[in-house]
């Protein structure tokens, strides 16, 4: 009898350990999931749009050629790989900046939604209550915060992207001929100091906050509007529609900041060792005086065709990855353990 009691107690203790371990893993995964999915989705999207980023940079540096002629020039001088110049730096950027901005935005948005849910009256059943939708101003605050944090984390990789993509468009005497992202970062740190990796970070932060405000906040708002009009929650119409709106608004909001950022990060000293601009504000002031406001939208078409598809692919992949993972996770928990654990985890980590 004592032996059976000990075996039964041991099984209960083992099951409790398994439940505790799963709950612990679930907590870690639910905190990391927005960051992991954001990094994967943004990196995959970049593979489709990197040539547009190269075109955009060449136009911002003054190229007057059309799409076809510029493409021929790049391929002739640099090979087909020239269209993907800076891809390694771009991937590094998505795994730092992209991961952080998407992860922080989703984490903050979910925290705000849980806060609103806790403040709801407890009289009605949970199933009778409509899903929480944040007001636009709260989405904007979350987007601005995420953009600022992501920009500071990803500025070194962003600097490498600008310099690698711009290098082929410079006169041969001025080219650095970087071997790749790590060569660019190490040479920049040696020549300009470690803080040189954050050159133009003020403009990068401003630009990324504008991107996030225009892209993520507007995409979430458009998705909520479509769902309120009858589109299926989490369906193709709401996800794709929100992503298209986010891609367009994000490109319009951020283009002037991106132009100034690119000019500051890619500037080279003249024969006397003097830089053309003292900083982002000086660059914006001189550009406005010499060329007028339209100059800030130089290369808008390639920028738009880079930003909008990247936003659409990223946001659609992000939503799809999250839904697939949540579905598989729910099925696994239901099969491996009793429903109590599933309900307990859902109470702690609501979707």
Defining key terms:
351 residues, 10 helices
Distance between the termini: 45 Å
Q: How is the biggest beta sheet arranged?
A: none
User: What's the pLDDT, averaged over the residues?
Assistant: 80
Low-confidence segments, given as residue ranges, are: 13-17
- Count of beta strands: 0
- Tertiary shape: elongated
As a percent range, the share of helical residues equals over 70%
Structural class, by secondary structure, is mainly alpha
Number of helices: 10
Rg result: 24 Å
Order of helices and strands: HHHHHHHHHH
The portion of residues forming beta strands comes to under 5%
Description:
There is one protein chain. This protein is an all-alpha fold and 351 residues long. Helices cover 75% and strands 0% of the residues. Helix 3 runs antiparallel to helix 4 (136-167) and helix 6 (201-228) packs antiparallel against helix 7 (236-266). It is elongated and about 70 Å long. Residues 13-17 have low confidence and may be disordered.
In short:
The chain is built from 10 helices and no strands.
Topology, element by element:
Layout: H1 2-60, H2 67-78, H3 87-118, H4 136-167, H5 181-192, H6 201-228, H7 236-266, H8 280-291, H9 300-336, H10 339-348
Helix pairs in contact: 1-3, 1-9, 3-4, 4-6, 6-7, 7-9
